[in-house]
Design goal:
about 55% helix; 4 helices; globular; two-stranded parallel ribbon; mainly alpha
């Protein structure tokens, strides 16, 4: 569903987009190959609009999930934010030059 929405959900003027595709494609809809193609297409569309793209598609340890094993805990969100910060800062540093 992210692929269908990416063009309208990411407004013009956006400088950086972080894609965290999650696992619904594998869980409900298809193959690893189709999931990878969807992620690549979203990134391509955003880059074509001049948006810098960070794809966060890391394996998240189970301890960072709530009891439903779908949503993240506060610690899970903090872990992802800490992993993303250097990547965002690198883009901002390049842009400032």
């Amino acid at each position: 569903m992210m692929l269908r929405r990416v063009d309208k959900d990411v407004p013009n003027g956006t400088n950086i987009a972080i894609l965290q595709p999650g696992g619904n494609d594998l869980r409900f809809f298809g193959s690893r190959e189709q999931r990878a193609a969807n992620i690549a297409e979203m990134a391509r569309r955003l880059r074509a609009r001049g948006i810098k793209v960070i794809v966060y598609d890391e394996e998240i340890p189970l301890r960072y999930y709530t009891i439903d094993f779908i949503h993240l805990t506060r610690e899970g969100h903090a872990m992802i934010a800490a992993a993303l910060l250097p990547r965002v800062m690198a883009i901002l540093d390049r842009h400032a030059r």
